[in-house]
Specification:
It comes from Streptomyces racemochromogenes. Pfam families: Glyoxal_oxid_N, GO-like_E_set. Keywords: Signal. InterPro entries: Gal_Oxase/kelch_b-propeller (IPR011043), Gal_Oxidase_central_sf (IPR037293), Glyoxal_oxidase_N (IPR009880), GO-like_E_set (IPR015202), Ig-like_fold (IPR013783), Ig_E-set (IPR014756), TAT_signal (IPR006311). By secondary structure, the chain is mainly β. It is built from 5 helices and 54 strands. The protein is globular.
Length: about 800
């Protein structure tokens, strides 16, 4: 049965609420473009009648979906000529209606991949629920929805709307479009145009070495990281919050020494920050106002004999970038060591998984209310009593549901297919198929690919810390716009050099990596970097770009010279570079070196500049004007990172369709759907046709006016994507927790101190003998003689003196 779309926040009340405040800034009608390329549409003004018996003009078709009452009519109230098209909705539960250019070889304009096109039309409407909707013809997959580009404002008189498409994707030969009505009201349109944007600019000149221009460049900074940062958050002011807590060091925990630092990448300075509790392995997310919500952390380390595992805190704090201080909130309902943290479209935060105070698995969902600025009591939060594991990757979908990608930390995936859609309102979990080797996606990375409007997720690599196989090369893709989404196989992860303790060698066969970092870049690609071949060992030196337009990797990039495995992270800076920190192998050491990657796009000549951003407080459905120093091809919002353990489910790249007023003045069209771009601070980038980005300008999306009105606003434009899922699973009954083995972290606690991780399972190539295991430990720089705590299950104490090897 088709799923009923829930009513969600739209634009009408938001525009009313901020109308007075933004009267001089909200652009009610784009400027008409000057005459340019020829109009590629046939019958753009509806003047030519259709074939005998047809009730639509030539080259136009009735289109739309959903539960609504509608009429189509060719009317004489025209902008020019004698005819126009009127579409009315008198009742709407969901869906839309639109007059669409006919999807056939005669009427659909031919386009070229990589080029951009200006779409324009004259219209009158009495509803704000109108969108410019575009479909494309894929030469392999046929006709499919592409994107919504703009929400033209209400206009009683004839007004012209114009918007530029993104670069046409590969394998696209034709596009069609129309103005959709998705709310009760009437829209009249006339005089459509589709014009190709002018000539492609000349290729840029390389400003670095040939290698830098092809592969980019890594630099190890002179300033070392003063803390053992397990968590990294890019703040709304461009600084970086690095959280260590006890830093996986039990001596620091016992001493009550908990640390954080704020790094300023512009000044190159680092400031340590008082830290109230052990935030080691906490969860974190940026709230709508730019503060950082930090939840749970480490209440206690495992006992030396391994009988007690890690324990989760109930504590929760917010970090204020303005004062660089932590303030305590109310407690969570239970401990959550390794919790998820996902911000929702209304600014609330939802969290799952992790370990409780007693080391059992937490089965309760937690919800932080943005309106009340507190965690809600358990009885006010919908519960499925499901255990999601540790750091489950929960990605917000365009209709408010959550997609669990299958990426997690420590051990096997969830029962079933390993990936699922969670519907909070319906309180259901529905598996989606296709994720390969779901029990070897421990420490994989998942990202919502650019742009967020495409609703496609990439999952990269992984392994299993319990069985400790060589990490895999698998990459899997899923399109959440499809009625029955399923993962499909992506290209294998490129291979590099691996250091298995005896020096670097090329990877072979199916060897991939876990603990990988995946960073969304302003040119629309994903940088994957870092990672290791085995659990907390054997770093892999490899980096590549994944291009979501072609679903291919560009291998052979410059590699970070610093190993980046367990407890490492990489993230985008506002200047377009990528920073990388951390490495905490099983021998208990920690690498404090900081690396910065300069991508090839910064060796392509001068960068475009955002010379003005008229308003930095944005609301949903806005049109915002910027000026640039020269033409750009795209603009986008990128949500700043909050990353740990390969996980940042809130990372997203939101396209901003453009109306080009002239060569230096551009109107940006902000999505009306807060589920695509949850409220908060974003980095605004402008990118030229060569993929060279500007330095980011910080803008705030949402804000108090739009959030306060959220309860009264109609639904944003949503399609019935993922509406033909299989039947939901049966939820478990109410329960307190699930048992979790104390060895969940993959460490055998019978040897050495707690912060040393002797693997419960050695790599498969290591013989199950004392000499072979001791040789592996020596090659990986474990302490030479570790105390045996009780029994000796791995047979590392051959002479029985109570010490290993």
């Amino acid at each position: 049965m088709p799923r009923t779309i829930r009513r969600r926040a739209g634009r009408r009340a938001a525009l009313a609420a901020v109308g007075a405040m933004t009267a001089g800034l909200l652009l009610t009608a784009p400027q008409p473009a000057t005459a340019g390329a020829p109009n590629l549409l046939g019958n753009p003004g509806f003047e030519t009648a259709g074939a005998p018996g047809s009730d639509m003009p030539s080259c136009w078709s009735k289109s739309g979906w959903g539960d609504n009452d509608f009429t189509f009519a060719t009317v004489t109230d025209a902008h020019s000529g004698t005819k126009a098209m009127r579409v009315s909705l008198t009742r709407r539960v969901d869906g839309d209606r639109k007059a669409l250019v006919t999807e056939n070889t005669t009427c659909a304009p031919t386009v070229a991949p990589g080029r951009q096109y200006d779409l324009s039309a004259w219209y009158k409407s009495n509803t704000p629920d109108v969108a410019v909707t575009v479909f494309r013809h894929d030469t392999a997959a046929g006709w499919q929805y592409w994107t919504d580009l703009q929400n033209p404002p209400v206009s009683a008189a004839w007004s012209r709307t114009q918007v530029r498409t993104p670069a046409v994707p590969p394998n696209t030969d034709k596009i069609v479009w129309g103005l959709s009505v998705y709310g009760v009201g009437t829209l009249t349109t006339d005089d459509y145009a589709l014009e190709e944007v002018g000539a492609v600019p000349p290729q840029p000149t390389c400003t670095g070495t040939a290698e830098e221009c092809a592969k980019g460049k890594w630099e190890v900074m002179g300033t070392q990281n003063p803390v053992r940062s397990m968590h990294a958050v890019v703040l709304r002011n461009g600084k970086v919050l690095l959280i260590a807590g006890s830093g996986n060091d039990i001596s620091q925990f016992n001493a009550g020494t908990f640390t954080s630092a704020v790094y300023d990448p512009v000044a190159g300075t680092v400031k340590t920050v008082p830290t109230p509790v052990d935030m080691f392995c906490s969860g974190h997310v940026q709230l709508a106002d730019g503060r950082v919500l930090v939840m749970s952390g480490n209440k206690g380390y495992p006992s030396v004999d391994g009988r007690i595992g890690y324990q989760g805190l109930k504590d929760s704090y917010v970090f204020d970038p303005a004062t660089e201080t932590y303030t305590r909130t109310n407690d969570l309902n239970g401990g959550h060591w390794y919790p998820s943290a996902t911000i929702l479209g209304n600014g609330d935060v939802i969290s799952f998984g992790g370990l409780k105070e007693d080391s059992t698995g937490n089965v309760t969902a937690e919800r932080f209310s943005a309106a009340q600025n507190k965690w809600l009591p358990l009885n006010q939060v919908n519960q499925t009593w499901s255990y999601w594991g540790l750091y489950p990757s929960m990605i917000l979908m365009q209709d408010g549901r959550l997609f669990y990608s299958g990426s997690h930390t420590f051990g096997n995936g969830t029962a079933g297919s390993g990936a699922s859609v969670y519907d909070y309102d319906a309180n259901t979990i529905t598996d989606v198929p296709g994720l390969r080797r779901k029990d070897e996606r421990d420490e994989s990375a998942s990202v919502l690919l650019p742009p967020a409007q495409d609703q496609r997720v990439l999952t990269i690599g992984g392994g299993n810390n319990e069985t400790n196989p060589a990490a895999n090369r698998l990459t899997d893709l899923i399109d959440l716009k499809k009625p029955s989404p399923a993962y499909t196989a992506g290209p294998d992860l490129p291979q590099g050099l691996v250091d298995t303790g005896t020096g670097k060698r090329p990877q072979t066969g199916a060897e991939g990596k876990m603990y990988v970092s995946a960073v969304l870049l302003p040119d629309g690609r994903v940088l994957e970097t870092g990672g290791g071949l085995h659990d907390r060992a054997d770093p892999v030196f490899e980096a590549s770009f994944f291009d979501p337009r072609t679903d291919t990797y560009q291998p052979g990039l410059a590699t970070d010279p610093i190993p980046r495995t367990y407890h490492s992270g990489a993230f985008l800076l506002p200047d377009g570079r990528v920073m990388s920190v951390g490495d905490n192998p099983g021998n208990g050491t920690y690498n404090h070196a900081v690396s910065v990657y300069t991508p090839p796009y910064l060796f392509k000549g001068p960068r475009p500049k955002l010379t003005s951003v008229i308003d930095t407080e944005w609301v949903y459905g806005d049109t915002q004007r910027i000026t640039v120093d020269r033409p750009i091809a795209r603009a986008e919002l990128i949500r700043p990172a909050a990353v740990t353990h390969s996980s940042d489910p809130n990372q997203r790249f939101v396209d901003l369709p453009m109306t080009v007023v002239d060569g230096t003045t551009i109107d940006l069209h902000v999505t009306g759907n807060p589920n695509l771009a949850p409220p908060g601070w974003y980095m605004l980038f402008g990118v030229d046709a060569a993929g060279v980005p500007s330095v980011a300008t910080w803008v705030h999306l949402g804000g108090a006016p739009s959030l306060a009105a959220a309860g009264q606003r109609p639904a944003a434009h949503e399609h019935t994507f993922a509406n033909e899922l299989a039947a939901p699973k049966e939820n478990p009954g109410q329960r307190a927790s699930v048992p979790v083995a104390p060895a969940v972290a993959g460490c055998d606690r019978h040897y050495g101190s707690v912060n040393v991780c002797v693997p419960t399972a050695f790599p498969a190539e290591v013989a199950k003998t004392t000499p072979a295991r001791c040789a592996w430990l020596a090659a990986h720089r474990f302490p030479k003689r570790m105390k045996v705590n009780g029994s000796d299950p791995l047979r590392l104490d051959a002479d029985g003196d109570g010490y290993t090897c």
